[in-house]
Amino acid sequence: MSVLCCRIPDFLIRLHCRRHPGLAALPLALLGGDEQIWALSPAAASCGVLPGMSPRQAQMRCPDLRLYPLDSQEAAGEQGAFLGALHQWGLPVEPLGWGCAYLDLGWLARERHKVEPFCADMGRNLRQALGELLQPSLGWDSGKFTARAAAFQTAPGRMKLVDKSDEVRFLSPLPISLLPLSPAALQQLHWLGIHTLGQYAQLPEVAVWQRFGQAGKLARRWAQGRDDRPIQSAAAQTPEAITVTFDPPEGLFGPVRQALLAALRPALAELAAQLRGLHHLRLQMHFLDGSTRTLDLTFVEAAYQEARLSSLLSHRLETLAWPGEIEEVTLWLLASGEVPIQQATLFPEMAPREDASLAELAHTLQGRFGHIFFQSAVTEASHPVAERRSQWRSLTGAGEPL
Amino acid sequence: VDQGNPVQDSRRRKLEQTVALLRSQYGDEIMRRASELTRRTAPPHISTGFPALDALTGCQGIPLGRLTLLAGHTTSGKLTIAYKTLASLLQGAPSVTAALLDLTRTTDPDYLERCGVSPERLVLARPDSPRQAVDLLASLVHQQQIGAILVDSLPHLMLSRQDARYLNGSLASLHRLVLASHCAVIFLDEPQPPWLNWLGWSRSHALQQWTALHIELRREEWLYQEEKLIGYQATARIVKSRWASSGGAASVAIRFNGTVKTSRTW
After folding, report:
1. In angstroms, what CA-CA distances link A348 with A312, A345, B26?
2. Burial status of residue A291 (CB atoms within 10 A of its CB: 0-12, 13-18, 19 or more)
3. pLDDT band, residue B102 (cuts 50/70/90)
4. Chain B partners within 8 Å of A392 (Cβ)
5. Is the pLDDT of residue B6 over 70?
């Protein structure tokens, strides 16, 4: 195989900065339709802002953060222009999120000396088509993962070509965070002293399988430079349909959401095992009065986490006007793609678990510290004696109120 | 760098090669040029609820991801300022929570609520020993679910010399954890007994080295309205701040507003 990874770093942010050049040096974040941060600039990321945060949470971490709504129509147009420019060569193209795609150079060039002029030509064409600010980084190798890692290790306007014989030497010193594993798995590896792809590649296969499952085993193969996944062009992906029938028809939001998530769970698990995620989900809802509504759920980065799907699904279902009770919902997984890799630093930051409550936290810590966690509870709000108005109650359900 | 000088050019090439190698190994974020750094007007912070004090700190309040020390005698306003800061944090973001390490075992839930702290988003912990309190503090910061932690108070963390040594030994790792978690940790301190000064030993010396902000509070005068006690005037002095020069002082008026008894009982 001969795979070229073409990546425009911070595509959405650079697109916004192209229209507003004064914002280029400032911490900047773009908000999606679900009122969460979809894209952020490196300056914002260095302040601790993470994708998926609410605007308020992000501003707590970075007071100078500039928030703007994402112009999805313009972004889709530019993404189309980017893919159109890649399609000019008539090669199979597999889109990989915003401003990133794989090209199969299999029948065109397999040796470095042939690939190099082709990449230079492609870089020039893309620069002309998209402008100076949206220059791509190009990475080439015989496999997808190494090509992608090479593109991540290269500055915009440059190319990194890795020969088959140099794969192991190239991959070995790179940080483990280049693998699209979950933050929890990366944290475990960090605690185990595994910081580079070379160290991970040398772990016993059975041990990796036992601890990290099928996804970890697949990631180990990639870390060894053994990635034989073929390029799947967008036209080759066939949507799968899942039908959820409500008998009797359901009019409440909660049960509908639960049923949809339950139907999607096996597909998400299957995608997660392949280190892939969902890009585009279509819902066709058939109501009792005979009307039909269609919802398109698009993820800025491929997602396999149920929480992310649940959040977006809840938002869209809540904002939709339901003409009646739902009889049937048909789901199509229109597009899926590779899970984005974490920030390419040696020690990735653990994503905070925002959904966990204080009671869960207290239960987590009580095994080590005992029943020492309390929460205030109002007993008599209008009592003249201050000490009687409220008291401390144990959060872990043990002991008498103080 | 002199562009025409071959020695300088060679050094510059070597430097660029080294930077490129480090970036390829550890990622682009490992190293950057000073010119690429963005100038930040204020770090992430929580307002104390007192604009004069916020302006004085240089960071518009209590910094997130740092250690802060509030020191002062009893009834100097440090606890009220700390509670108001927690209230400001919890009012600002609906999903953020706070923790209070109540080593004195005197925290009044009614007073907390009157200062504006939401009781359902505050967890109170009463550790059994100073060592357990230090371990708990590190664990809470490491969990990355807490926006701010108030430690009431520092003297109770240093009941014995062994406890003091344990706390001082943990400060470096605690500082690293706090930096990574973006959690504000506020310690309350009281002036040490005079005989310790006479011996030349400072109880909070090690902590002061690690704090980014150290504020000292002193009560100046009681405030009366129609012969009724309504609060007191306190002076906040910056002993240390990473964002402002030390020595600056501001006056804050702390009014009871029904939060404590207003009749004179002393």
Report:
1. 26, 6, 11
2. exposed
3. very high
4. 109, 124
5. yes
Q: What residues in A contact B124, CB-CB < 8 Å?
A: 373-376, 392
Kindly list the residues from chain B whose CB atom is less than 8 angstroms away from the CB atom of residue A25: 38
Interface test with B, best of A187, A374, A385 (most B CBs within 10 A): A374
Of B24, B46, B145, which has the smallest distance from its Cβ to A353's Cβ? B145
Say how many C-beta atoms besides its own lie within 10 A of residue A201's C-beta. 20
> CA–CA separation, A267 vs A277, rounded Å?
10
Residue A399 has pLDDT above 70, yes or no: no
Which amino acid is it at B73? H
Of A169, A171, A151, A178, nearest to A5 (Cα)? A151
Q: Is A352 in contact with B144 (Cβ distance < 8 A)? A: yes
Strands A3-7 and A28-31: unpaired
Residues for chain B: how many in total?
266
Residue with tokens 């357990």: B132
What is the DSSP pairing of strand B67-72 with strand B184-189?
Answer: parallel
Tens of pLDDT, residues A227-257: 888 887 765 556 678 888 888 888 888 888 8
- The complex scores an ipTM of 0.76
Residue-wise pLDDT for B169-190, tens only, equals: 999 999 988 988 889 999 999 8
Report which of residues B226 and A143 the model is more confident about: A143
**Peptide bond preceding A248 in cis form (omega within 30 of 0):** yes
Nearest residue on chain A to B98, judged by CA atoms? A358
Tokens in use for B48? 């104390």
Query: Six-digit token pair at B59?
Result: 């960071």
Amino acid at A158: R
Window 134-163 of B: residues touching A by CB (8 A cutoff) are 135-136, 139-140, 143-147
Q: Are A71 and A32 in contact (CB under 8 A)?
A: no
Return the residue in B16, B22, B23, B29 with the most chain A beta carbons within 10 A, the one to mutate for interface testing. B29
Angle at CA of residue B148, ends B145 and B152, nearest 5°: 125
B139 CB burial (10 A radius; 0-12, 13-18, 19+): middle
What does the pLDDT average to over A10-26? 84
